[in-house]
User: Fold this.
Amino acid sequence: MVTRVADVPVAIVGGGPAGLMAAEALVARGLRPQVFDAMPSLGRKFLMAGKGGLNLTHREPLEVFLARYGAAQSHLEPVVRAFPPHAIRHWAGELGVDTFEGTSGRVFPTESKAGPLLRAWLHRLRAAGVLTHAHHRWLGWNAAGHLRFATPEGEIVVAPQATVLALGGASWPDLGSDAAWVPWLAERGVRVSPFVPANCGFEVAWSEHLKTRAQGLPVKSVVLSFGEQRLKGEFVLTTYGIEGGVVYTLSAALRDAITAHGSARLHVDLLPGLSRDEIARRLAKPRGKQSLANHWRKALHLGGAKALLLRECARPEDLADHRRLATLIKALPIVLLAPRPIAEAISSAGGVAWDALDERFMLKAIPGIFCTGEMLDWEAPTGGYLLTACLALGRACGHGVADWLATREPMGA
Ligand SMILES: Cc1cc2nc3c(=O)[nH]c(=O)nc-3n(C[C@H](O)[C@H](O)[C@H](O)COP(=O)(O)OP(=O)(O)OC[C@H]3O[C@@H](n4cnc5c(N)ncnc54)[C@H](O)[C@@H]3O)c2cc1C
Assistant:
């Protein structure tokens, strides 16, 4: 049996940061939206982000910040300018969560977790009259154009005046955003760019020797080069390849290069503080009875993960020639074969195309249906840019819904 729920002014499907911020904006405009989510509780990916400290935003100058959105900058710029990083910190502060700037400029809650912020946020929304419904999986539309939900009590149909879809991207589907909605929107004429992994690891054909020793080893204080980009930082060796840190920052360019050419060659400067000549000079010192590993450690302070990587990528003839070895230490090539699956990625690229939306985030093909958050076609590196955009997009979409409703006849008229 299908129960019909009629008196829902605005249904928000997806209770992640974008959906909840849309709810907050609607409340500010005097509306009482209801939030539906498939999972047993709301904000699961937000909570998972909290396990890494919850990098909410970044303190860098706004012009630099906005450029992180790459091809989508023109779409995200007005939205982020309307709810910029300092406003996000203020918003968190109003919810009783102070923030601090890490050494890299990344901004985190002082407690470095998401639970207190999410709890305070949900409490404030519910106190303002927002109803939240967990265990409500949206199944698309029925023939009358109403929303279908699977619930523990059976299927229900909801007929709101306006709907916000804030269904997330396609990474970590176990946390709720599984992109099951893509065909439902495509069938109704909405252009959706295919989802691909963003901020992801990459596969490398490591030897068995490296695989057995590498898992989880950080390679610190290196410079990674790819194309025009040179980034200082660290990354992590895994049995399948590399992940983390600066690899995520380069991941969009690496992924696109692999799609275009079948593989991508990254170069690692293992000792950015030393010139090639200085490295060659130190390597040329007689090593006596010392092993190669000891010689590298004493002459260059190069050991651990860096030495493992150097041995993996160098040929025997390179190891015997200090000039060739110095060249390799300054630019060690690593060939990346494929991005890791999207289910493991921090975020996804792809989603509802910008030209499918009007300026209020309403789907041109389906009046009254709005989309927001990571389900839209944009990507950004880690550093707080993802959550900042999701919060700012949610806010802008909520106002878009309120503006649109204001142009229509009053409810019940
Ligand atoms: C491990 C990890 C760490 C991260 N750390 C950070 C970080 O530190 N900083 C940062 O900026 N970003 C981080 N992110 C990314 C950030 O969490 C996401 O970009 C953000 O949560 C996306 O927000 P959203 O509201 O658009 O989607 P989501 O948070 O994915 O929310 C979408 C919601 O929609 C619901 N839903 C989906 N389909 C249906 C359906 N059919 N019916 C009903 N409900 C549905 C889901 O259950 C989910 O609750 C991290 C991500 C991961 C995986």
